[in-house]
Amino acid sequence: MTTREQTPIDAVAEAYVDTYARLDPIAATEMGVAGHDAEMTDLSPAGHHARADAARSTLLALEGLVPADATDELTLAAMRERLGLELELHAAGENLRDLNNIASPVQGLRDVFDLMATDSESDWAAVSSRLQQLPGAVEGYVESLRLAASRGQVAAVRQVHEAVQQAQELAEADSFFTSFVGGAQVGDALRADLERGAAASREAYGRLAEFLRDELAAQAPEQDAAGRERYALWSRAFLGAAVDLDETYAWGLEELARVVAEQEAVAGQVAGPGATVQDAVALLDQDPSRRLEGTEALQRWMQETSDAAIAALDGAHFDIPEPLKTLECRIAPTQNGGIYYTGPSDDLTRPGRMWWSVPPDVTTFNTWREKTTVYHEGVPGHHLQVGQAVCARDTLNSWRRLACWTSGYGEGWALYAERLMADLGFLDDPGDRLGMLDGQRMRAARVVFDLGVHLGLPAPERWGGGTWDADKGWELLRSNINMPESFIRFEWNRYLGWPGQAPSYKVGQRLWEQVRDEYVATARERGDEADLRAFHAKALGVGALPLEVLRTAVLG
User: Fold this and answer.
1) Do 82 and 399 touch, CB atoms closer than 8 A?
2) Does residue 216 fall inside a structural domain?
3) Residue 366 in 3-state DSSP?
4) Who contacts 436 (Cβ-Cβ below 8 Å, separation ≥6)?
């Protein structure tokens, strides 16, 4: 492949990545940008202002630059959309009030250590440096939360209570920080530094828990709903596109009914004519050939399933770059029930990884339920989508490869990939197909939940009538998610505290399918063969663009 020459627009994008990595070292580690693992992000109001200023100055630097080619045109459109939204969120104070049960600094300050290399003394020295700086980051975070509170911007009290519990757990003597540094094979001096850093981090989380419990909780509203104005902003941020929220809610109700009907039909194939979904689930859960006991067995099965998918898809449906043929499947050190993917580093020395955070009360796993999740997080899902962009060094600048992330593109693709695997015959087993539909049903239900609760929309009589609230939403989730109650409770809290994110999966899938269908229709109008392999290669080759920009990239 011919290496594309850097353009002035590329140069601005590269400079922005360098600046952003310096201003947000946690993000640098997540992106795999080297050189910042020993540093910590400033979470104070001053830190947020500095990152907003970087976005603003980058947009100004792009003014007047003429795109040299189609790649430049997409970069320009994507940077204006992404950085523009970052400034909108900053102006609205959203970064100052950031607090929820899954994706706020409460979790991020700890989770970044999962991504750090620990193979050498120099790696551990970087860990030690970051641990020593964590208390300062917590102080800055508290300063931001206080400023937001003075403006009347505080997360719902439910989220504050969840954060208190998580912070308290990380403050315990036997918390993650203790076990993490306890495994270091280093000299005595560095070990002492690591232990001091771990102790300081535990103490910092203790102070955070105290602040949240004793100060912020008293100022937190009872109401979970974000309201239409905040929700519309976050919806655009997660999708990279503006959608009609009321039409999307109505579609969500229809899509949920459609998926339930499809699942009921497959249930009959699993458990016989007239069987309910519950009958089929019970039968599949009792099948010893579909059951795994313990996390070691789960990890082995994840790895085997992922490896088999890569081998089967490569060359037949996708051209998978050689570095992406390695995907590490791991059990996460946390126990909150999440399943997630972390991408490879820029230099590919850190491979892509699939993480499974297993709650302490969950010891049995069912393969029929989880095979589709491996496809979602691995190949052809996140690992292919994220990793392919990282590998596109010859055609895309660093911002496009590493820093441009849109949930609707990434999560929408991963959900699209699940359905694609069914279409390609990888889920022909009725049990595995029921599992895929189980996941689709959950994603459809949370479109209804998220929009219904946060916008205060009318609830169907089946779910209590009147206006949606958290309690009615709980019954909706319980009726449509076949998972342990601890998992559903975590998800319920997640949707309440992270408005607009959960629907980006299913709505993103919808937008992906619309773009694909338009691509196919256009090809047929020209008399060309509708080549889905070519569509996938083209759409994945441009990186995680905002979905409105993706449409332009694929359809012109």
Assistant:
1) no
2) no
3) strand
4) 371, 372, 418, 419, 421, 422, 427
- Tell me what pLDDT residue 333 has: 83
Contact 150, 45 (CB under 8 A): no
Residue span of the structural domain in which 491 resides: 235-503
Helix (H) or strand (E) holding 238: helix 228-239
Q: 92 in a domain, yes or no?
A: no
Joined tokens for residue 431: 């049990």
Q: Which residue carries 């918390």 as its tokens? A: 175
Look up tokens 């009914």; give the residue: 257
Which residue(s) pair with 291 in the sheet?
366
Rounded to whole angstroms, how far apart are CA atoms 3 and 390? 15
Q: What does residue 330 show for φ and ψ, rounded to 5 degrees?
A: -135, 155
Instruction: Give me the pLDDT at residue 523, please.
Output: 85
DSSP track, 9-29:
HHHHHHHHHHHHHHH-HHHHH
Question: Strand pairing partners for 437?
Answer: none
Classify residue 331 as exposed, middle or buried by CB count within 10 Å of its CB (0-12, 13-18, 19+).
Answer: middle
284, part of any domain: yes
What are the 10-residue block averages of pLDDT along the chain, 556 residues in total?
88 98 97 95 98 98 96 97 98 98 97 94 97 98 98 98 97 96 95 97 98 98 97 98 98 97 96 95 95 95 97 95 94 82 90 91 91 96 95 94 95 96 95 95 97 98 95 96 88 96 97 94 82 91 95 91
Strands of the sheet containing 339-342, edge to edge, are 327-331, 352-356, 339-342
Cβ-based neighbours of 418, under 8 Å, separated by 6 or more: 372, 375, 376, 381, 436, 439, 440
**Rounded Cα distance, 440 and 327, in Å:** 24
Return the DSSP state at 69. Answer: S
**Are 54 and 87 spatial neighbours (Cβ–Cβ below 8 Å)?**
no
- On whether residue 454 sits in a domain, the answer given is yes
Contact 194, 129 (CB under 8 A): no
Please give the backbone phi and psi of residue 100, each rounded to the nearest 5 degrees, phi first.
Answer: -160, -170
Count of domains for the chain: 1
pLDDT at 1: 55
